[in-house]
Amino acid sequence: MLQNPNLVLYSLFNPLAIEDKNGFLNVVTFDHVSSNPRLNPHYSLIFPKFTVCIMTGASSRLALFLCCRFVVALGVRTAAHCVAEDHEAEYYTAAVYEHQSILSPNPLALTSRKQALELMNQNLDIYEQQGVQIIVFPEDGIHGFNFTRASIYPFLDFMPSPQLVKWNPCLEPHRFNDTEVLQRLSCMAIKGDMFLVANLGTKQPCHSSDQGCPSDGRYQFNTNVVFSNNGTLVDRYRKHNLYFEAAFDTPLHVDHIIFDTPFAGKFGVFTCFDILFFDPAVRLLRDTEVKHIVFTAAWMNQLPLLAAIQIQSAFAIAFGVNFLAANIHHPFLGMTGSGIHTPLKSFWHHDMENLTGHLIIAQVAKNPQSLVSIENATDKMDPSHSKFLEILAGDPYCEKDSQEVHCDRATTWNMNAPLTFHSEMMYDDFTLVPVEEMEGYLRVCANGLCCHLLYQRPTLSKELYALGVFDDLHTVHGTYYVQVCALVKCGGLGFDTCGQEITEATGVFEFHLWGNFSTSYIFPLLLTSGMTLETPDQLGWENDHYFLRKSRLSSGLVTAALYGRLYERD
Questions:
Q1: Is 166 noted as a catalytic residue in this protein?
Q2: Is 379 a residue whose pLDDT tops 70?
Q3: What tens digit of pLDDT does each residue of 237-269 get?
Q4: pTM for this structure?
Q5: Per-residue model confidence (pLDDT) at position 381
Q6: In sequence order, what are the beta bridge partners of 357?
Q7: What is the residue-wise DSSP string for 196-265?
Q8: Is 399 a catalytic residue?
Q9: Candidate list 203, 239, 291, 550, residue with the active-site label
């Protein structure tokens, strides 16, 4: 039984609304170890106290939820909590937990099943303190990482196929051997009356007659498991796109796992590196009833384009789904960044300083609203958008030879274009142009992809920004074809610093960014100072170009990018 009153509140809900000296309700969060609330600067939901309980519309739903739960938790009887029942008909309560896992001191050493369970149970003890309608825990959170195939073996649970066997590990603990972790997870789901998604290592015996059977007679998989609120093993997903994971096998066939819930319908599930590939991530969404994704990860952040919260939010926006992402927390390895992302709003955690786990809870719409528009819906009289449309309508046809880009007619907006330069970004050779003026229009091209930027800014900061393009095969730490248009803050004032990892910036822009992409799979990345996510004002296709529009940034721009994937060229 939790005795500390702050921890009791934390176990009921998180984030929490707390009044500041100005009479505003602020979203705060609780670290797993600390009992003290702290204001989370990454949340932008700040509401006047006197309006929070009477606001209407989609943007106020979370505020209403926080107000209701806040007054109920404190035992104050007001009219606010009476609205919650109707509110819950449209929303469900989801949680993700960024876990500071307890790791094996020597993952390469051989150990016993008993010793392995002792370590895994320490992590499971932390897991057991949570509870909502659905919760997601991170990849490698129970067993750790950096094992060999042999040294991970004692950490593996036996996994029967949920398609062949209906099984409740908590209620039938002796049905299969070596299933202690599954049993504990099943019991957690029952105790919390919640759906539970977790990641563990599993083993499956195979015979020599199976041509894919490894020489040691077993498959070893990086596995997500899904339990219903009654403890039944609903399904399992075996990671397909492994990322330097010698301890695990790639399944012979891709698992396309969709599970149904009574509170929000269908969820898809995949793991970490899978997010960059067509299978299973994109193929799952061909089922139009899948409106929610659960995502476990042990993701190492790589700026300026692939920080964990960047790609999580971008996936939610690009496909118009809710994205529940739990990342592991090991800042010394660059691992942090979890969130509950909708197409219109994100609630996230990114912390490279503190060594504590972190729980995020939010109310999530059962039917998410898409941000991406097929037809341009912006007021044509808006000056910046009118200029964008004017440029787009007059964009000349361009071809690239070995030296430069040639266009079939000269235009007034590119006669004095700055010289291009090259710099390494994400291990790729980007072609870039500097962004030097208070306002202007720039274009840069490579391999048929032309990226355009129409921008203005209130003041010039003492920082170098650049517009870059890349249209080619990425070959470091994975092989996959990308088309990228990116506006980035450089690491310094030299051109060779463009593409370096930075997290702070002061330059504020209003801009349109667009390109003639040859794929429909485009992920919008928008990050500002202090690892703050921003939502685009508008996205969509216009005259065969995909564009992103943004004004009123909350802080200095770090990255604005359109990250296209050409899966067929991988």
A1: no
A2: no
A3: 999 999 999 999 999 999 999 999 999 999 999
A4: 0.84
A5: 56
A6: none
A7: EEEEEEEEEE--TTSTT--TTSEEEEEEEEEE-TTS-EEEEEE-SS-SS-TTSPPPSS----EEEETTTE
A8: no
A9: 239
